[in-house]
Write a structure and sequence with these properties.
The protein is α/β, with parallel strands linked by helices. The protein contains 8 helices and 9 strands.
Amino acid sequence: MKKNAHNIICLEAEWLYNSCKKDNRFNLKTEPLLNWLKEYHNCDVIYRHILHKADLLYYLDYFKPTKREFKDHEIIYFACHGNEATIHLEDEDVELDDLAEIAGNFFEGRIVHFSSCKTLSNPDAALRFKTMTKAKLVSGYTKSVDPMKSAIADMALFNDLMYITRNFGLITNEERSSFRKTYQSFLKELGFVAY
């Protein structure tokens, strides 16, 4: 019998009509990719579009794990623009330290993946975020990433994470991780890290 798969909450920012330079805009929505995972693994996927910090705050409160219907949504997926130790929303950048503070216990015991350029390029900030939030796993990219390549890497990561409950060395340990070995050159190009 197949184990229960992790459920996913995706918070995706605007790509096409955002305030970034025109050449950094594109039209890529992660929802269809997540629907593929949903069908394959029979997991639940919640997809929400966030434009402003107010949207982020609303969903951090609405989907908190203390609500019975969301306690099994263990993967939190941020799909947005980013920079060193920040995620970019339309009205402002949100630093990882600030995100940890405003989130309360939202990330506690959950897997958090940042699909954004350079958000985890500062290892101290990434580890501090993990410690402050008590997340099980924090992953993302240290480089500027191609959106299509990072979306493919995200789906491969979630596919491998889907049934892991405790042994995250299967993702964090470069020597032991079959995921890291299988996609080694691809992940190196993106600057993938996991803590």
